[in-house]
Amino acid sequence: MVTTIIEPSSRLDHLRSLRHLVLLSVIVPALGIVSLPIAAHGQTATTDRLFELALYGTQPPGRLARPVTLDGAENLATIIRSIANQADLSITFDTDRVNSAPARSVHFVNVPAATVLVDVLTGTGLHALVSPDWSIVIVPRETPDESSGAGPPTRTQTIRGVVIDRHTQLPLPGASVAIVDLDPMPGTITDAEGRYVIEHVPFGRHDIEARFLGYETTRRTGVLFSSAKEVVLNFELSEQVLAGEDVIVTPREEKDRPINEMAMVSARPFTVEETRRYAGGADDPARMASAFAGVATSGDVSDNSLTIRGNAPKGVLWRLEGVEIPNPNHFAEVNIAGGGGITIFSSQLLDNSDFLTGAFPAEYGNALAGVFDIHMRRGNTERREHTAQVGILGIDFATEGPFRVGASSSYLINYRYSTLGLLAPLLPIDGLTTYQDLSFKNSFSMGPSGRLDVWGIGGLDLQKESPEPDPADWRIETDAQKLRLSLGMGAAGINYRHVLGNRTFAMATVAFTGTRTHLDQWQARVDTAGSEVALTQTLRVSKSRVQQVAGLSLNHKFSTRLLLDGGVRLKRFSYDVANAAVLLAGSALEPVSSGTGNSFVLTGYEQTRVELSRAVTLDAGLHAQYFDLNGELSLEPRAAVRFAVDDEKAFTAGYGLHSQTEDLQLYLATPSGLSASEQALNNRDLRMTKAHHLVIGYQTALNRISRARIETYYQYLFDVPTLETGSYSVLNFSQDFEFDGRLVNLGAGRNYGIDVTVERFLRDGYYFLVTGSVFRSTYRGGDGIWRRTRYDQRFTANALAGREFVLRDGGAVLGINARIGSTGGSLRRPIDWNESLAQRTVVFDDRLPFVERNPIQTIVDVTVTYRINRRRTSSVWALQVKNALAQGLPYFEYDFVAERLVQEKDVIVLPILSWKIEF
Questions:
Q1: How many helical (H) and strand (E) elements, i.e. helices and strands, does the chain have?
Q2: Which one of 232, 313, 448, 885 has the lowest number of neighbouring Cβ atoms within 10 Å?
Q3: Tens digits of per-residue pLDDT, 691-707?
Q4: How far apart are CA 867 and CA 869, in angstroms?
Q5: This prediction's pTM
Q6: Nearest 10 degrees: CA dihedral of 807, 809, 812, 814?
Q7: pLDDT digits (tens, 9 = 90+) for 838-871
Q8: How many beta carbons lie within 10 A of that of residue 121, not counting itself?
Q9: Rounded to an integer, what distance in angstroms lies between the CA atom of residue 191 and that of residue 264?
Q10: CA distances to 89, 246, 452, 496, 640 from 50, in Å
Q11: What residues contact 778, with CB distance under 8 A and at least 6 apart?
Q12: How many CB atoms lie within 10 A of CB 899?
């Protein structure tokens, strides 16, 4: 073979880059081309990263962008020499192999050299690899079934998706997409509609990078390729403020960058893959998020409620596809408002989403503690794929695919069902349970400028309990209890997104949400003589709320430095509440909260992003919320700033005024002892609870795959509903279906602390996440005294780690993940011992504040997965062990046999075994 080196300057010293000389000496011999003799002056020969020339797209940088003019019929070697001479490029190739390609007619006038070279090599079996100094090597393109040695052919999969402008939603034709952790890198460029396809990607985890001249390079790390399902991965690129020729962008890992660019403080994205992989996650976003900084749990395995920076769980907002939805949990609000047993969301439908813990951007309203901004992915538009799973949590089936191949429209549906008794320990109630849920997202292309998404989720829950049939077996209160609980939650909507010109897009939304709760509870008691059994109803809860939503948002990019986003939304709702309880032992049911009617909430927001310089970015906006039930208008300014010291370090600061409405049962409480006219007013004149959030943070890259972040925060809450006297405050609200008090906005609260995160992203088969928070949470009741809140747990700390082992040449993957989390104990009111003995039940002294602390809880979770990749299917065995150390929270029960209060400890160790097949 003959080595031909095309040198426009005819001098070898034009290859003055030592990196290029080392590149040729190491890579070229491996390709069957005669190597060049070089002397590296004692330096160790290392190989630079080689890029596919095609990845630079239609707007390549540097000398690759120099115009070339060719016209006529020539053999391939002559064409390549002409390109090299005109563009001042160094190109190395095998003359014999290149000349074996047929001659062709070419006609290019002032076309970038990279585009011409890619075009003339198409269909020849050759491709061009380029080094960082623009030197090019032309080599044969290996077929996916070729094997470099003994052993089976490489197992591969396909990745497809679209690349669009983040702010205008326009496709980016000619953008490059590459698998950057493979060498050489397989890649491609997008077509006129921004679509790309890369075939024959080896099984395993890979890093995918999308780049386009003038835009920030985006990289997705640790994307899993397996046998059964294609990878569908879409990119939204942001235009760079400063761009120019010969600027080489070395991308950083963007895993810690929120989906919502306006969220510059106290926000982090999470992937659906993390909800599956993190130990203790149980495919549940809420349980997964409990590992993040600033987030604490009750320490009880039976619920997934979150205490964020000392706030009550009821302060968390859930959004789905941009629409506020009711608490999306099975058995929601039963034990703790804002919590539940397990999320209705199936991991089969989730897309990358955001989790925010403070100082939210202007588009988020009606939240004081945190925000889950959930997105559902679109189905595969080219191939029908299915997933089935069976396990202790029930059965799960998902299907997706195109309505019609080639039409850019798709469906995605998931259904789950469970009646297994082993599910009970994961839910906030005892006994045999039944739950089911359905989720879907159908996406339709509406021409080159529009897309219509139809989505929905819904869940049904049922719980029944009966007393032990023999009164002699009654030892504690739940042994003599009868209960029937029925819950339902649903949300469905239509989003239409339309591009208006080159700088603007709008989205219109119509949605419906609803929730209902029916709870009847009876208590059987033996009289003091032990001869008579009485079964009396002690609680009746009936609540429903149906909401219609209509909204419109507009996003406009004035320039790369100035972005504007705004919108309005009307939420009209109807409600029906009829709660009754036994307030005194031996009395009948009395109404505690009741009312029917209609009301509405009108919200609007505007937020602006300004790139003041390459280092300084400012986000500012205003959120407005009008609540018709009490006639209150809340205007809430928001602002955040980011100062980038360099590409690796940045300081951030954010401020926001936030407000939240209370549960309808509090507004409709019917205090006893008032006149009929006073009871009719209820608590409807209550103002919304409000809070000032202030956050200051610093983040730095420890290396390309590790990050550290520290944030300190202060929150001041005001207009907090309390009783007019005493220590009661809704900041301590957990759940109370029997509440009937008259509330006033006299309370206040303070939360402050420091959050620390150190994270290594999944690379080379392992990852870790370490988080810690130290915080205080205090409140002021109607009596004006400052005290600790129920949720003043003082600290929380978590450590997660995981390792993946690739076995059988990618045919199997073993994953081992573990998590240890420790949380300070929450506070509780003391027990009124005398009254408890008199009523033969546990009675807390509501006159006293939260002064007794639960013990520190240390929870260990372990997850082991084993994936098997076959030719057309992939199966996954998973074992998740929650609370492996058998920790439990102590509590008191009245013992009918001993006739005294006894301490119990509820210990739950839950092994969750499942088997999933993808086909």
A1: 9, 51
A2: 448
A3: 999 999 999 999 888 99
A4: 7
A5: 0.82
A6: 30
A7: 888 888 887 788 999 999 989 999 999 999 998 8
A8: 21
A9: 33
A10: 16, 17, 40, 42, 40
A11: 749, 750, 751, 786, 787, 788, 789, 792
A12: 9
Q: Would you say the C-alpha torsion 606, 315, 883, 418 has a positive or negative sign?
A: negative
Q: Which residue has the tokens 């030592």?
A: 18
Cβ partners under 8 Å of residue 210, min gap 6: 163, 175, 176, 177, 217, 218, 219, 235, 237
For residues 448 and 323, the answer to whether their CB atoms sit within 8 Å is no
CA distances from 553 to 22, 167, 352, 496 (A): 54, 13, 21, 11
> In one letter, which amino acid is 535?
L
Going by C-beta distance under 8 Å and a sequence separation of 6 or more, which residues neighbour residue 510?
493, 494, 549, 550
Torsion of CA 758, 764, 766, 767, to 10 degrees: 20
Give the integer Cα–Cα distance in Å for 444 and 454.
8
Positive or negative torsion for Cα 110, 114, 118, 121: positive
Residue 638 is encoded by which pair of tokens? 């928001």
Block residue for tokens 């077509």: 191
List the beta bridge partners of residue 775.
753
Task: Tell me the chain's radius of gyration from C-alpha atoms.
Answer: 31
Q: Token pair for residue 763? A: 């690379």
CB atoms within 10 A of CB 622: 17
Q: Which of 283, 271, 275, 290 is nearest to 392 (CA)?
A: 283
H, E, C per residue of 195-222: EEEEEEEECEEEEEEEECCCECCEEEEE
Which residues, 6+ apart, have CB-to-CB distance to 78 below 8 Å?
A: none
Give the CA dihedral 176, 182, 186, 190, nearest 10 degrees: -20
Beta pairing class for 3-6 and 91-94: antiparallel
Nearest Cα neighbor of 4 from 74, 98, 85 is 98
